Structure formats: structure tokens, C-alpha cells
Amino acid sequence: MKVQHDIEAKMGAGTCRRSASLRSLISRAEGTTTSPATNVAVNGTNALRYNDATFAATNMPLTTTYTATAADSLGRHSTNTVTVSIATNTTYQYDGNGNLTNDGLRSFAYDNENQLLQVWVADQWFSQFAYDGKMRRRIRQEYTWQGGQWVQTNEVYYVYDGNVVIQERDINYLPTTTYTRGLDLSASLQGAGGIGGLLSMTLNTELGPSSSNSMYYHSDGNGNVTMLLNPWQYIVAKYLYDAFGNTLSAAGSLAQANLYRFSSKEVHLNSGLVYYLYRYYDPNLQRWINRDPLGEARGINLYAFVGNDPRDRLDLFGEDVNLPPGGNPLQSWPYCPVPPPLPPPPPSLFLPTPPSPPASNDLNNIDWENLTDVALSDSNDFFSVFSGEKGHMDNNPNPLPPTNTPTPSPPTNGPPSTNGPPSTNGPPSTNGPPPTNGPPATPPTNPPAK
Length: 450
Known about the structure:
- The chain is mostly beta strands and 450 residues long.
- Among the domains are: 5-83, Sandwich (Immunoglobulin-like); 93-308.
- The chain is 0% helix and 34% strand.
- It has no helices and 30 strands.
- It has strands at 5-7, 16-18, 25-33, 39-42, 45-46, 48-49, 54-61, 65-71, 77-83, 93-94, 100-102, 107-110, 116-121, 125-131, 137-146, 149-161, 164-169, 175-181, 198-203, 214-219, 225-229, 235-241, 247-251, 266-267, 274-275, 280-282, 287-288, 372-376, 383-389, 392-393.
- Strands 12-13-14-15-16-17-18-19-20-21-22-23 form a twelve-stranded antiparallel beta sheet, with no helix packed on it. Strands 1, 2, 3, 6 and 7 form a five-stranded antiparallel beta sheet that branches. Strands 5-4-8-9 form a four-stranded antiparallel beta sheet, with no helix packed on it.
- It is globular and about 75 Å long.
- It starts with a strand and ends in a 57-residue tail after the last strand.
């Protein structure tokens, strides 16, 4: 069993914290192991190990190279090295509309609707996006720098249901990935922006039936995807995040293939941005890269992510911090709203209250003419109404005898006569089928409108 380790080069070894007292730069390295380890050291410093096979080394001197070495109970070792580029003096640039255009490493370009069109790192990679009239991203193109020019490596077309993606297609418009969605955190299909509503991801290009190529999502209480299972219930992807959505660890054979992670939103791997429909969120900066499309409706800080409270609040589509009904900021998200009460049925369905039964058990004293009985049909599971008539009840297999006709008593003058079989008057007379008024009238039909 080989022990492998991975240091996340974003919020792990790639994040710097400035100490207010010492004014020195320190870093934290975090990662995960694919099997239990008895010891993990990062750059010679023992790291803290957790029960979920993750580790963290804190208060480390700032450097550009981090090496993790782990050992298991059998004395086997595994080493992994990550080289990161950490800018200590970063200058951020914006355009006239408040859109971030450069952060010292990445460059950004926007259209007239302040939608992100391009993001790139010089001489490394380049990504380009296209949108429809509803501001939904429909095309994503990826390029890499080779031989002094940009070479396209991928092109993805998105198919939407409302405001959530349900399928990805390739450059030939053939399905590559299909997403099945259910109820999100709002107990509706898209009331919470699809957050927490992902059910499965089907890889359409893999061999075999779709049932064997479907992976099933598991999310935490905030709708962050934490795990994917294959049809045989093996873990194929596992994620850990910090409060602001930085990936602390990603392990599994499909950990990189699945792009829906923090807040059930799609992450752009090259830039690290998370796509929220109307804006892109940067977990490293813990803020949006451009201003709130709704302006100052929820405050003057147009770049803050969920009011700096990602534990209790959500942003559905990148417009603003989403509050529960009533706008009470002290009430936390996610919430499951109580469904509104059902409307009352039409007056015709209201049933009169049945009269109280008589004190006596004598059924002949019941006014069958005015009695309405409500019974539950076991076969159809719905309420049916039986209207009583004197001496008989509709659908009643055993009607009671009429109350105004006395029941004849047997003679008391001796034993019954034995002079022969009792006389019979023949079968009961029938009056024929009930009269009919003819076939029902056919409603007039109007010619189709042209």
C-alpha cells in the first residue's frame, strides 16, 4: 500500500498571513494522504494529523518549496514536493467600472456588461468565455502557450435548465457530462441557486452503460460537495474546504474531473475562480472580482462575499448576500422554509356535519333520509359520500328494511303446514332498463385559429 501526499498550492502552502506583532510572513501547509500515516513532516517540521487522513503544518517560514514526507506503520515512506510562487507585494488594478483587471499574476478582461470574457497568465494559459442574453455562460475555451503561440486544448458548451447547468458538450456538440439535480437547500429545484441540489454526474464519453458511469454527490450542510461515490460505493473524489471555499485537500481518481465543489458551483481550475452565474468569486482573495450587480442595495462594500459570514450565509447567483425571508441578518442560512399552507378546497367539497347517532341502538329510529355518511374507501384511498334514502343507502350491499312497513310475524296456531313445498310467486318482476334520454349532446367545436 503506497502512501501518497499532496500539498495544496493555494490556501495550503500558497497563503501568507502577516503577524501584527512580529511583522513577519508565515505560512501554513495542508494536505491529505491516501491511506493512514503514522507521521507526516513538512520541511522537517512535524505536521498535525487528523482522523480524515489530512494533515496541517502551521507557523512555517515563508518559502517557495514545500516537501511533505510521510511514513506508515510498516516503515514505508513517501515524499511529495510543491513549488509555489508567493507575491509579497501585490498591486491590484481595476478598470473604470470597478472590475479587477490584474492581481500581479492573472489578467482579466470584461465586456460592456461587466461579464468576465478572458482570464490568463502570460505565456502559460488563456481562458475565454461567451454568454447568452440571460448572462449565462454558454461556451468555455481553454488555450495553452506552445511554440510562441496560443494552442486551443478544450472547448465546452453548456446546456441549462433555468439558471443551472445540466449538461456539458464538446466542440462537436456531443454530450460529455450530464448532471442530475434534485431539491437544493431551499427545498425547491433552484430556490437556493442549486446549492446542495446535485445528485449525480454521468460521464457520457466513458465506455459502458450510464448506470456504471454515474457518480453520486454528497454535500455538507452548506451545500459544499464533499465526496463523490461510484455505483459500487467507492470514494472517487473527496474534498475539504476552509470557510471561504479554499480547497484544503482534493483526493481521488475523479477529484480533478469533477468541477462542482464549493457551494455546489463550478470552479475554473486554471484561475481558481468559482462561477456564480452573475459574478466570479476568488476564494484566495475571499471576495468577488467585480462589483455587486445590484449596487449598494445590501451595503457599500460591493466586493464582500456573503458579508464575510460564509458559515451562516449563502450567495445564490453572485448578486448579493442572500438572507432568509424577512431579511433578518441574524437568521442563518441555509434554511428550509416552511411550505405555505394549502389553499382551502372549493365550497362544494365541504361536507355537512353528520347528525349525532341516537342514544338507543335501535337502527329504526335513525332518520335515514337526512343522514349523510362519510366513509373512507380502503380500495381507492379517497373520501366518498353515501347519500341515504328511506330504506336504502347508495352503494350499501345490505340495505335496511323500510321503517314504515311492519315485518310479518310467523303464525302461532301450530306447526307450519307440510302439505307440499311452499308456493313461489316466480321471479321478481322487472320493469326493464331505466329510461335514457339519448346520447349526450356533443359540444360544438370551433375551427382552429389560424
